[in-house]
Amino acid sequence: MSVNDGDTGVGSRVIERTLHRKRTLLMLLLFAAILVLSACAGTDRLGIDSIADSDLPQNSLDPAGPAARSIDGLWWLVFWIATAVFVMVEAALVFTIFKFRRRDGKDRPVKQVHGSTRLEIAWTIVPVVLMAALAIPTIATLFELRAEPDPSENALQIGVTGHQWWWEFYYPEYGITTANEMHIPAGRAVYLTMTSADVIHSFWVPRLNGKRDLVPGRTTNLTMEADEPGLFFGQCAEFCGIAHADMRQRVFAESESDFAAWAAAQAEPVTPPTEGLAAAGWDTFQISCSSCHAIDGTSAVAKLAPDLTHFASRTTFAGASIARTDGHLREWLRNPVDLKPMRPEFNDLSAGRVLGMPDLDLTEQQIDELIAFLDTLE
Ligand code: CUA
Questions:
Q1: Cα 7–12–17 angle (5° rounding)?
Q2: Would you place residue 1 in the very low, low, confident or very high pLDDT band (cuts 50, 70, 90)?
């Protein structure tokens, strides 16, 4: 009996030590995995971050236009009031804990009270007054953000349509359609009229504006302005399916003359190339791509996927999630779904539904030709 007992004791200690060692090992492995994964987060395989001149390109606390500045001002007002409330409440809590702590030798029953009308009225009224006071600038800011720009401001009109998972921008004044990258004149109001082709999306360029939803079957509006020329990054702010995170946009704010030059170049129709690789690429385009993509001035007029009229003038593609380089285009044309999560298996062109670009089974030769053609679309 006693020998057996001893054996069990030693055995369980061994098991316990082994378990402990295993747990330590597991914790170390987990820690290593976190380190490795956080290192991965910094890589930029698709080159999209390479032209952001800041580590925080979407910082709404760094406003670059009137709308974003109003939101920022309101945010700081609420922040400082909340901070003051927090400090006062915590100070009262800490004071109470120390003042009324249990002391040696002074242990006595606490006086039992039930409710204090005066206190309860006070801590009901103070928050009500505070909230009511905060509602005044909040509602004022909401109305200010919703206001249509004054006709004297000569606002630039842009139509925005959200698609799974890219942005379509239309400039009625110039007859320009582009995708994912918006050009605007700095220092002039821009009035966006927005809708969605499928599900709800939300237009958000944090340094320029607050979020505004794009709702299928409805139009919503947003006034936006950039103080100075610059590049502003944004992204869809309403979950809209598998590539929501890759539905980004770029806003290029330019001087009036640069903007006018851009708009004039974009309005130029395309003359398809007639010789060399690019001409062969145009042939392939008409067979494989033109059922979804349009190129102004040519026979390609479908509007189910991004308009590619001046594709080579853009810095990115695929919902502004990939830098536009020949290398990335080659990878993309081999199999788009490898670079961006999409659901082309659910496409139904006759119903106007496109959930991503399918693998078109292109040969390497066709891919070379298509890239040569796309590069001519400046
Ligand atoms: Cu579109 Cu999220």
A1: 130
A2: very low
Task: Reduce the DSSP state of residue 189 to 3 states and report it.
Answer: coil
Neighbours of 16 (CB within 10 A): 10
Rounded Cα–Cα distance for residues 91 and 150 (Å) = 49
236 lines ligand 1 (CB under 6 A): yes
For residue range 270-284, list pLDDT tens digits in order. Answer: 999 999 999 999 999
Q: Which whole-number Å values give the CA distances from 52 to 38, 308, 315, 323, in the listed order?
A: 20, 24, 12, 12
pTM (two decimals):
0.83
Pull the structure tokens for residue 86. Answer: 């927090």
CB of 230 closer than 8 Å to CB of 186: yes
Residue 254 in tokens: 């330019």
195 CA → ligand 1 middle, Å: 12
As a whole number of angstroms, the distance between CA 290 and CA 231 comes to: 31
Enter the tokens of residue 136: 């005044």
Q: Evaluate whether 273 touches 204 at the Cβ level (below 8 Å).
A: no
Looking at the chain, how many residues does it have? 378
Q: Is 239 in the pocket of ligand 1 (CB under 6 A)?
A: yes
Q: Using CA atoms in the order 3, 4, 6, 7, what is the torsion angle rounded to 10 degrees?
A: 120
Chain segment 169-210, per-residue pLDDT in tens = 999 999 999 999 999 999 999 999 999 999 999 999 999 999
Question: Is the model's pLDDT at 122 over the cut of 70?
Answer: yes
Decide: 310 in ligand 1 pocket, CB within 6 A: no
Q: Report the amino acid identity of residue 227.
A: D
| Sign for the pseudo-dihedral over CA of 179, 66, 82, 87 | positive
| Tokens (6 digits) for 334 | 């081999």
The answer to whether the peptide bond before residue 165 is cis (omega within 30 degrees of 0) is yes
Task: Give yes or no for residue 355 CB within 6 A of ligand 1.
Answer: no
3-state secondary structure of 110: coil
Q: Are 249 and 205 in contact (CB under 8 A)?
A: yes
Residues 369, 287: Cα–Cα separation, whole Å = 13
* Pairwise CA distance, residues 199 & 196, whole Å: 6
DSSP 266-330: HHSPP----SHHHHHHHHHHHHHTTTT-B-TTSS-B--SS---TTGGG-SEETTTTEE--HHHHH
